[in-house]
Amino acid sequence: MLGRIVDIVAESGRRVAAAHGFSVENKGSRENIVTSADLENERFLRSRLTELIPDSSFVGEEGDESPILEEGYTWIVDPIDGTMNFSRGIPEVGVSVALFKDGKPHIGVICNPFSGRMWTSEIGKGAWRDDVPIHVSDRPLEDSILSTAWCCYRKELAPKVFEVTERLYPGINDLRRIGTAAVELSMLAEGAVDLYFEIRLSPWDYAAALTCIKAAGGVFHGIEDDVWFDRPSPVLAANSQRNMDRLLDVVSDVFNGKTPY
Ligand code: LIP
Fold this sequence. Notes:
Elements: H1 2-17, E1 24-26, E2 33-35, H2 36-52, E3 57-60, E4 73-81, H3 83-87, E5 94-101, E6 104-111, E7 118-122, E8 126-129, E9 132-133, E10 145-148, H4 158-168, E11 174-176, H5 181-189, E12 195-201, H6 203-215, E13 219-221, E14 233-238, H7 241-254
Parallel strand pairs: 3-4, 10-11, 10-12
Antiparallel strand pairs: 1-2, 4-5, 5-6, 6-7, 7-8, 8-9, 12-14, 13-14
L-MYO-inositol-1-phosphate binds next to strand 4 and helix 5.
């Protein structure tokens, strides 16, 4: 099954990389956009993936809200994660496909159509980048790179996120903001970055990459409890429980232990 999903994601990546002359529309704000390439790739992925597993549920960024099945299979898909990057020709973009089994992460596949990098994972079997086994890093906090974002879709939340960044920065190595959660979280799974925090993401942004992190020995969490996969959620991820504890301490203190939406 993993191999057949990889083949479909690879084909969708080639379609995204070849997309030109696409239209761009706002989804409610100047920061939140969708292109005709997003819509076309979601249609392609919906068709091919639900054909692979008949009776599976499909949750996509650009489509209707389907449920995550408590029994059976559910696809959670972002056809182009990092749409703003894509629309401006910035080659940091992810096609993200998660397959949940009985409501839990099972398989995660993410590809960057421009670099050709493909992250794959299956819970209980492992995680790979381009077929090479990957694992989270063992870096201590002071050597850690934090990948983060400041909630461009809900800028009223940004001041507190900047406070989190300000409080963590002296004690870590450095920051990265690449603009695609799916790829940045996959980079944590392969040990390139070590911490991730974003106060509000949608399940299609992270479902596949968190599957990869879990299979690669990393940890993730929300603020009060686990990451929610049925609605937008805070996403904290780390290469170790020790580093997660520090990240969660700061985030929880700044947000008073509560999800602010
Ligand atoms: C994007 C995320 C990114 C986040 C952006 C946006 P999209 O997903 O992957 O990390 O900071 O605000 O949500 O909307 O391009 O699929």
